Amino acid sequence: MRALPRRRRGIAVLAGLTAALLATATGLPAAAAQPRPADPLQRQVDAIHGTGAVGVLAEVSGPGGRTTARAGTAVAGSRTPMPWNGRFRIGSATKTFTAAVVLQLVREGRMSLDDTVERWLPGVVRGHGNDGRLITVRQLLRHTSGLRDVAPEVASLNSAAGYRAERFRTYTPGELVRLAVSDEPTFPPGKGWSYANTNYVLAAMIVEKATGRSWAHEVRARIIRPLGLNGTSVPGSLPLIRGPHAHGYAAFGSEEATDVTTLDPSMAFGSGAVISTAHDLNRFYAALLGGRLLAPAQLAELTDTVDAPELGVEYGLGIAEIPLSCGGTYFGHRGELLGYTTWAGATADGRRSAAVYINSDGGQDTQKAMTALVDRELCTTG
């Protein structure tokens, strides 16, 4: 597929030698980095930064080309700009990757959405009222299994002290599931909706059983390589973000933020571990909704939604359906993993996509400003 033209905007630079040095550092022509105050995307990125985010970057793609804007800094207290091609932890947007792999396996006849967890992982979900014999793969992907979320049990995600103590701790998928099923389920399978990362830990474990290969291998082979997502990776237990990236910051409810860039992401196996870029997320969601990754029957399953009252949206299989202010809806996912938050999605036909991320918690109005950016850009024609 031919690359779309790009226009990069959003940072003021001095003329002459300073502009030349910036061009060398970023790999961009110096002219591409000149400020464009009238650019609506830049205004929205500036607005997000104004809500308290350390740094912001957004990219929008559509039939008319590709536009990127940035604001703030990659390192708190510095003058280092957000990298144009920066990589970050996409958090729960990983769930769309996992769901796409599962649906490809369904298309190949290697598994069914109606298979039970017990069929693939005998004895793994048992005890305290949890029963894998009653939970289907579809319920995992749709968050209607009733299983408890494992995230509150992970110390590194919940306090600065926990982060410092466990940022290099490696969790196994089985250990994560045991933590989640050590308590009673939220509701019987299929009788409610509750967001639980545990569902996607199990879905990724089932991918491994069905293929005989790792979840990471399947994501790379089925999504990353075919789409040419050169900034996307599945890091396993590697605590570093390779390549250009902004530092991530988390306040854990206090006033002082902690640099949480270094983190073993194994606690997010299947559910939030992928590292990517705004550009790659746009390519992924556009290809997914445009039918390049899934056959029509599986794409229909992906986008068949139920009410998700916790989120205030409709939820399909690893993807949310979100109303647009201009009418209609788009499909995408919010992602957050300690220090990085993203919103990414595409119109139902995949023709227009938008992704924005920040490298901190932000402030009270940050999430609202991020969703407003995606809404506006996906409502824009051309």
Question: Could you characterize the architecture of this molecule?
Answer:
With 382 residues, the chain is of the alpha+beta class. Helices cover 32% and strands 16% of the residues. The protein is built from 12 helices and 15 strands. It has a 9-stranded mixed β-sheet with strand order 1-3-2-15-14-13-12-11-10, with helices on both faces. A two-stranded antiparallel sheet has the order 4-9. Strands 5-6 form a two-stranded antiparallel ribbon. Helix 2 packs antiparallel against helix 12 (366-379) and helix 3 runs antiparallel to helix 11 (296-302). The protein is globular and about 55 Å long.
Helices, strands, pairings?
Layout: E1 6-9, H1 17-26, H2 40-50, E2 55-62, E3 65-72, E4 88-89, H3 94-107, H4 117-120, E5 126-127, E6 130-131, H5 137-142, H6 160-166, H7 173-180, H8 197-211, H9 215-227, E7 249-250, E8 258-259, E9 275-276, H10 278-289, H11 296-302, E10 306-308, E11 313-315, E12 320-323, E13 329-336, E14 341-347, E15 353-358, H12 366-379
Parallel strand pairs: 1-3
Antiparallel strand pairs: 2-3, 2-15, 4-9, 5-6, 7-8, 10-11, 11-12, 12-13, 13-14, 14-15
